Amino acid sequence: MIALVAAALSLAIWLYLLLGRGFFWRTQIRDDDRAFPEPPRWPSIAAVIPARDEADVIGRNLSSLLVQDYPGEFRIILVDDQSRDGTAEVARAAAARIGAADRLTVLSGRALPAGWAGKVWAMKQGADHANALPEAPDCILFTDADIAYEDGTLRRLAARAEAGGLVLTSLMVRLRCESFWERMLIPAFVFFFAMLYPFAWVNNPARREAAAAGGCMLVRRQALARAGGVEAIRDALIDDCALGERLKSVGPVWLGLTQRVHSLRPYPDLGDIRRMVARSAYHQLRYSPLLLAGTILGMGLVYVAPPALALFGAGWAQILGFFAWAAMAAAFQPILRFYRLSPLWGPFLPVIAAFYMAFTLDSAYQHAVGRGGLWKGRVQAKASATQ
Questions:
Q1: Separation between Cα atoms, residue 236 and residue 123, nearest integer Å
Q2: Cα separation values, 145 from 87, 100, 126, 176, Å
Q3: Which residues have C-beta within 8 Å of that of residue 312, sequence separation ≥ 6?
Q4: 3-state DSSP call for residue 26?
Q5: Cβ neighbours of residue 352 under 8 Å, at least 6 residues apart?
Q6: Mean pLDDT in residue range 170-181
Q7: What is each CA distance from 20 to 25, 142, 200, 235, 285, in whole angstroms?
Q8: What element of type H or E holds 76?
Q9: Could you report the per-residue pLDDT of 226-279, keeping only the tens digit for each?
Q10: Per-residue DSSP letters for 229-285?
Q11: Mean pLDDT of 196-202
Q12: Helix (H) or strand (E) holding 97
């Protein structure tokens, strides 16, 4: 009887996810879904790039931005967040090589104050510099140092923002998917993100759901001020979604997938992806043991129970478990196609989800031993020592 109830509940949940949660799994909300007319006036943009020990990628990042064919005024503010690998020098050399040194400003990041997350503090310093310019920009592009932009991306981003009167226009960049572990785990990361924050709901002004993808966020400067500025999210480890929530309170936002903006960050080993997820997973659960337990039990019911029942159950429990397993494998197919991966990964989503369950438990453990939010030598989670 328990097996039958679990199978029926799992199938009901997957039917809801397929049909009642904004069709998050379809991957149809992208930056190439339509063309927008050129605005009468292109907004001026300042890109703010927080960079901590990014010498290996910052040259490609800056080169891809500084060669954009953007018709409006565009400059870059790089905040060197106390790097130890010569990030600032590499950045200046990259800009000089393409004759764009005059459009790059490198700020030496100040020491991290109590109560601030490291990346957000760097974003704050860059935004303050943009606000203090003689001609402050219309928009700020918050982007990561490990992101590369194909030519024309900035023009398309600004055209969409102008046409929709958007206060935030964000792209979920295409993450690297080359190693075995990347192919196994990275598409599911995007799948789970879209499940938590269905893009159609985020983009609907009538709904309260809000999110953004931190690799690429074009923000109207005055809207950011109305939303309380960067300081309103000072302690957020998941800074993009926190910023998306603040900005949606003052105007329309848009979030979509893209093939034109790529992450340069490699995750060749299982441990690399584990650390990436564990850095903020427990923060997402508000450091609550009850929410952690509920999440693990819920993921077990949604992802683990269907294949277990389909393989080892009997009667209706086995049949319903099989259909729930088939539903999740089908839901996973669009993101696999987006990443150009074999559809045979679909039936293995329960195994992939089990890894993410383990990463979430590890995130709670790291927090308990004082290493929560660890990123490049800096511990940032609440109730941990901030360095």
A1: 12
A2: 10, 17, 13, 14
A3: none
A4: helix
A5: 184, 185, 188, 345
A6: 97
A7: 11, 32, 12, 33, 23
A8: strand 74-80
A9: 999 999 999 999 999 999 999 999 999 999 999 999 999 999 999 999 999 999
A10: -GGGGTT-SSHHHHHHHHHHTTS-EEEEEEEEEEE-----SHHHHHHHHHTTHHHHT
A11: 98
A12: helix 87-97
Task: Please report the pLDDT score of residue 373 as a whole number.
Answer: 77
Which CATH class, in words, describes the domain spanning 28-268? alpha beta
**Rounded CA Rg of the chain:** 22
Residue 178, class by beta-carbon neighbours within 10 Å (0-12 exposed, 13-18 middle, 19+ buried)?
A: exposed
Coil, helix or strand at residue 289 = helix
pLDDT at 376 over 80: no
CB atoms within 10 A of CB 304: 16
- In the chain, the amino acid numbered 315 is G
CA distance 209 to 306: 29
Beta-ladder partners of 169? 218, 254
Specify the 3-state DSSP secondary structure of 164.
helix
Give how far the C-alpha of residue 55 lies from the chain's centroid of Cα atoms, to the nearest Å. 22
Length of the chain: 387
Token output for 147: 């992101």
Of 338, 313, 342, 310, nearest to 325 (Cα)?
310
Domain ranges of the chain: 2-24+272-368, 28-268
- Tell me the two tokens of residue 135: 């001609």
Q: What is the pLDDT of residues 106-154, one digit of tens each?
A: 999 999 999 999 999 999 999 999 999 999 999 999 999 999 999 999 9
The verdict on pTM exceeding 0.90 is yes
Listed residue (65, 61, 28) closest to 155, CA to CA:
65
372, amino acid identity? G
Residues in a beta bridge with 262? 148, 174
Spatial CB neighbours of 345, under 8 Å, sequence gap ≥ 6: 183, 184, 187, 332, 336, 352
Looking up tokens 């590890």, which residue turns up?
362
Buried b (16+ CB within 10 A) or exposed e, 261-299: bbbbbebeeeeebbbbbbbbbbbbbebeeeebeebeeeb
pLDDT band, residue 381 (cuts 50/70/90): low
